[in-house]
Amino acid sequence: QKEVEQDPGPLSVPEGAIVSLNCTYSNSAFQYFMWYRQYSRKGPELLMYTYSSGNKEDGRFTAQVDKSSKYISLFIRDSQPSDSATYLCATPGPGNQFYFGTGTSLTVIP
Amino acid sequence: KAGVTQTPRYLIKTRGQQVTLSCSPISGHRSVSWYQQTPGQGLQFLFEYFSETQRNKGNFPGRFSGRQFSNSRSEMNVSTLELGDSALYLCASSPNQGFEEKLFFGSGTQLSVL
Q1: Residue A98 bridge partners (DSSP)
Q2: Type and span of the H or E element at B47
Q3: What percent of chain B has pLDDT over 70?
Q4: Chain B contact residues (CB < 8 Å to A)
Q5: Cys staple from B46: which of A104, B33, B34, B40, with CB 3.0 to 4.6 Å?
Q6: Residue A54: pLDDT above 90?
Q7: Strand spans (E) along A4-103
């Protein structure tokens, strides 16, 4: 079982929709989670980070962790075509090694 | 502050050749990590360097190696290339602050092995 699993999609939504992106993790010891956004032919960029204790909001983005089900979510409100990208969840493991989900490809249609 | 710089952006090699990729981290970041990204496997950890020492290594064959210089710049080398080595190779630097650690990625080197 992989440390972090993610539905690869692809996900296609109309502009203005609320998007929900999800990951599950295997180890209840994981405490700190990140969401990265990756545009085509670019490296991942850090979008948000949060702890297993709750939610974090940043503008149109909300990161949520459900410890009981080991579930991580990223919500995007009022989605824009510029949000079209691949979204990756991640958590740090031992020795500064990070575990990444395989990414969910999102397309927001104008 | 300049971001993580990786060179070259694109490489085309043939099987059996070797390749060297370069990474310059964000100024002040002493930890450099390398990841391989493929469509099927996602990002897989190769190795991490800190102060010129490899601190951690992923589950890759010995054909994959790296090093870090005193200015924190890093190189990774892949010898005897195989078709399956075709991937986006990403370098990331981090401040190694011990808490809320974050990785900052370069744009990657796209390696194609023919």
Answers
A1: A92
A2: strand B42-50
A3: 97
A4: 4, 6, 31, 33, 35, 40-43, 45, 48, 50, 55-56, 58, 90, 92, 94, 96, 100-108, 110
A5: B34
A6: no
A7: 4-6, 11-14, 19-25, 32-38, 45-51, 56-58, 61-66, 71-76, 85-92, 98-100
